[in-house]
Amino acid sequence: MRTIAIVNQKGGCGKTTTAIQLAAEFAKSGQRVLLVDLDAQSHCAAGLRIPDSRVHNGLARLLASDTPPEIPWDDLPITVQDGLDVLPASRELAEIERLPLDQLTGEETVRLLRVLRAFTGSYDVRILDCPPNLHLLTLNAFRAATEVLVPIECGYFAIKGAERQWDFLNSVVQEYRRQICCHLLPTMLRDSDLSKNLLSIMEKRFAGQILPTAIRDDDAVREATVRGVPVATHQPTAPAAQDYAAVASWLISNPPLPEADPGDPPRRNARIAEVTARLIRSAEVKDELPRAVAVTPGRSEFSAASTAEPSGGVAVQDDCTLGPVPIPGGVEFRREWSEDAPEASVIGEFNQWTPGRHRYQRDPQRPNMAVVQVPLAPGTHQYMVHESGRDPVADIHCSKLERNQYRMPVSIAEVTA
């Protein structure tokens, strides 16, 4: 029973798009395919033009308890093209994720496997589109899958997160004692030197796990999504359509290992319950990052050389130097202000290279300058500047540069004790 789980805890990487396109390609090859949407946002239904009136909560009802209700299976799948059925998601799926971890018995992670075993024997392939997290529904997909596919955008932030996610996936495989293959699929490959360089880095870093074809960034995919059809139906000669066809062909030629079969669903298991709770807790993002400090409004009692600490922030020396400027307890990052400039933020290890956490804001005292203050410990700190919709770059106002582990130039901010 071939079951492919499409997994990534990061949204916007092409996960649902990949699930839809591969399901369509498998169906084109003559196989009977069931696309199972485990994301309460129900994007598979939207991406295949299934009207809201046909979306039901049958899957949520089947997964809500260890003894699912008797529901006629024939009433659940929705046929969207020859050989391709969809089991849609509904908002009720979100309730399953809220089950208290201290109440787990172990059976909660095999409910999906039990449903697939009971009802889907007539399908050749089942593709599971997982929610953008690593909680209970995604772990259900791991227990049911014969292989896992992880779409990874060919972007700087994605590759930074890919290593942490890959380690987590390996932990899941080991903890659940599953002998399944995990593959990485590069997506959104742009025609830029940076994107191609990042793909090269991914190929070296994940040698043996990365698929041989990358999915090119293609407007035809976005157009097909609006129309509610697979890209191969919308524009068969589009680059992305060719790429997804090549990926499906590779997967068909490389079936899962016989030992990847999950076997019969086990009953209650205290070890599985404890492992599941631990995995979910370890996947939760703990936001203990330094806060951006609000820029102090203009106050007449502070002179240009003032270093006193105003309420709610750290002191600022009032000059026009751009780039990283040391301040008590951290650094103030400065750049020119422009009404037309895209939203920009500082990224670095201090915020896990996450855009938007430390945004530049216009300084009321210096209206031609945008600043953000970041509390930092003494030492040197790598950082870059990210503008919305663009790849991150080194700070043009910082003269100190070095190359990071990916051989990309990054700026250096220094904080003295």
Q: How many helix segments?
A: 12
Which term fits the overall shape?
A: globular
Q: How confident overall, as mean pLDDT?
A: 83
- State Rg: 25 Å
* Unreliable segments of 5+ consecutive residues: 285-318
* Order of H and E elements: EHEHHEEHHEHEHEHHHHHEEEEEEEE
Gap between N and C termini: 61 Å
Total DSSP E strands: 15
**Largest beta-sheet details:** 7 strands, mixed
Helical fraction equals: 25-40%
Summing up helix and strand content along with how strands pair, one would put the structural category as: alpha/beta
For the largest beta sheet, what order do the strands appear in spatially?
Answer: 3-4-2-5-1-6-7
Note the beta-strand portion.
15-25%
Describe the structure.
This protein has 417 residues and is an alpha/beta fold. Helices cover 29% and strands 20% of the residues. The chain has 12 helices and 15 strands. It has helices at 15-28, 43-47, 58-63, 93-97, 111-119, 136-144, 156-175, 193-205, 219-227, 231-234, 239-253, 270-283; strands at residues 2-6, 33-37, 78-81, 84-87, 125-129, 147-153, 181-187, 323-327, 330-336, 344-348, 361-362, 369-375, 379-387, 401-403, 409-415. It has a 7-stranded mixed sheet, sandwiched between helices. Helix 1 crosses helix 11 and helix 5 packs across helix 6 (136-144). Residues 285-318 have low confidence and may be disordered.
